[in-house]
Design goal:
The complex is a heterodimer of chains A (337) and B (167). Chain A is of the alpha/beta class and 337 residues long. Chain A is built from eleven helices and ten strands. Chain A has a five-stranded mixed sheet, sandwiched between helices. Chain A has a five-stranded mixed sheet with strand order 8-7-6-9-10. The longest helix of chain A is centred in the C-terminal third of the chain and has 26 residues. Chain A is globular, with a radius of gyration of 20 Å. Chain A starts with a strand and ends in a 17-residue tail after the last helix. With 167 residues, chain B is α/β, with parallel strands linked by helices. Chain B has one domain: 3-Layer(aba) Sandwich (Rossmann fold), CATH 3.40.50. Chain B contains four helices and eight strands; from the N terminus they run ββαβαββαβββα. The two termini of chain B are 14 Å apart. In chain B, 47% of the residues are buried. The mean pLDDT of chain B is 91. Classes of the chains: A alpha/beta (337), B alpha/beta (167). Chains A and B meet through helix 3, helix 5 and helix 7 of A and helix 2, strand 4 and helix 3 of B.
């Protein structure tokens, strides 16, 4: 069974052909971040208009690379949310037209479910129940996953997303976009103990409106901005600042995830989203998994970030449950899982 | 907790908060003053408390404040309370045309629009707006908040706010 996946929820225009919900036949991606990276510290322009300009080419290339005629596609899957309404609609409209022309079913997929199933693309079987940490520029969500399709949001950021904190810290140091890889790279050369940043809510027991697995990164950002200012001109301290910052984010993400795994007594932890490509997070989470007795399942770094293959994977698993969408499918910018 | 306020010669008003909680509270008091349709712009460096302020604002509008997170990546978050609140962030925007393209400033007439990093695209902003600027204050956690209305609706909002603060 061949599924064409389309993803336009944020800055990337992506298409992929996936066979039987696990094997990538072809993938195509158009991104803005490479263009802007070289200007250093510049935040990328939103690419919503870019989606319109590139989607036709991206989908055609994906089909060409797959070496299949469009008629061989059994279903069309598209991200329906969450994301930017204007950006989502480009992918949805294209997918609708494509599915209608081919006479194939159309499936609207939740982007976050795509991130959860992304490790399947690396040959992993997912074992449920599991805890899933989806962490990116726009999301910092902890889910209890009872089974495929059954998710309970148990924790999330109460202010900034972790990936947003990485991007803003990078821009503060004059590093390029995207900020995550830039901090990862610079931090690897630094001493993470020279600057010790706050880890807000890391060990907080439940109180007030916040749950025990909620997270906060805004105070860390404020402390980081202050430390950069106080470190004075020049970039002598930048590697140490990046290392200290990265360690603080990683510590919070890991403590919350480990606590959730313990609380729900699960032995499987799934990571996803752009921040899951962070090498420090991957290493420390893998070490902790051994100590705590759970398995950590990681997508490859390129499938941590937004991609269309994961959308096709989610669609494959949904299709077994007979969950296709009709052509009145609409964008759901705030769709929660 | 009333922030310390001083009155400018003109219609502008400046006050200082001494903690993130006080910044939150200042937002909450503003939220309680709003009548619908106001445009608020929030500018200041990273870590000045803009999102924190909007969390307070949401509370003042009867929106659960824990629903309010940074809209930097999503660009716009919508909330429904006593009045609808559109929480925007222009941090990632470069092209003014994206505002129309994405229908970013749309909403029913009662929608309160709060825009972080608004000065990144100054030409796109509605004429009548209350500009709220955050700058570092005298002590390390202090924030000086400068309020500048640019039209009659914003002036009415600022008068109501100052009445609440007794200045």
């Amino acid at each position: 069974m061949l599924i064409l996946g389309i993803e336009t929820s944020c800055d990337e225009t992506a298409a992929a052909v996936v066979s039987d919900g696990r094997v990538i036949v072809s993938e195509e991606l158009a991104t803005q971040s490479g263009v802007h990276g070289k200007y250093g510290g510049v935040v990328p322009e939103l690419a919503s208009r870019g989606h319109v300009e590139t989607i036709d080419r991206v989908v055609s290339r994906a089909l060409e690379k797959a070496g299949v005629d469009s008629g061989a596609v059994n279903a069309v899957a598209v991200t329906a949310g969450p994301g930017l309404a204007g950006a989502l609609l480009v992918g949805i409209s294209f997918a609708k037209a494509f599915a209608y022309a081919l006479g194939r079913p159309l499936m609207g997929i939740n982007h976050l479910e795509g991130h959860i199933v992304a490790p399947i693309l690396s040959g992993h079987e997912l074992r449920y129940p599991a805890i899933a940490l989806i962490v990116s520029g726009g999301h910092t969500h902890l889910y209890y996953v009872e089974a495929f399709g059954r998710y309970r949001l148990i924790g999330r950021t109460i202010d900034d997303a972790a990936g947003e904190a990485f991007d803003k810290a990078a821009s503060c140091l004059g590093l390029g976009y995207p900020g995550g890889p830039a901090i990862d790279h610079l931090g690897a050369q630094g001493d993470s103990t020279r600057f010790v940043f706050p880890r807000p809510m890391m060990r907080v027991s439940p109180h007030g409106v916040h749950g025990r697995f909620d997270m906060s990164f805004s105070g860390l950002k404020t402390a980081f901005v202050k430390a950069v200012r106080e470190s004075g001109p020049g970039n002598g301290a930048h590697a140490d600042l990046a290392a200290g910052f990265q360690q603080a984010v990683v510590d919070v993400l890991i403590e919350k995830t480990v606590a959730a795994a313990g609380f729900y007594k699960v032995r499987e932890v799934i990571l996803g989203g752009g921040v899951a490509a962070n090498s420090r997070l991957r290493v420390v989470m893998t070490e902790r998994a051994v100590l705590e007795g759970f398995r950590v399942v990681l997508p490859t770094p390129r499938h941590c970030t937004d991609n269309a293959a994961m959308i096709a994977v989610a669609a494959f698993h949904r299709s077994s449950a007979d969950l296709s969408s009709s052509l009145d499918l609409n964008a759901e910018p705030s769709w929660s899982l | 907790m009333t922030p310390r306020g001083v009155t400018d010669a003109g219609i502008r008003w400046t006050c200082t908060t001494s903690s993130a909680d006080q910044t939150w509270d200042t937002g909450r008091v503003l939220g309680a003053c709003l009548e619908g349709g106001e445009v608020l712009t929030l500018d200041g460096e990273l870590g000045m408390g803009k999102t924190r302020f909007v969390q307070g604002l949401a509370d003042g509008l009867g929106i659960p404040p824990d629903h309010v997170t940074s809209p930097t990546f999503a660009v716009r978050h919508d909330h429904q309370g006593r009045l609808p609140l559109a929480h925007l962030d222009f941090y990632r925007l470069v092209d003014p045309d994206e505002i129309d393209w994405l229908d970013l400033l749309d909403g029913v007439p009662q929608t309160v629009i709060a825009i972080e990093w608004a000065e990144k695209l100054p030409t796109t902003l509605p004429a009548d707006r209350l500009s709220i600027r955050f700058t570092p204050g005298p002590a390390s956690d202090d924030r000086t908040i400068t309020w500048s209305p640019t039209g009659p609706v914003a002036e009415r909002t600022l008068r109501a706010l100052r009445a609440r603060h007794g200045t």
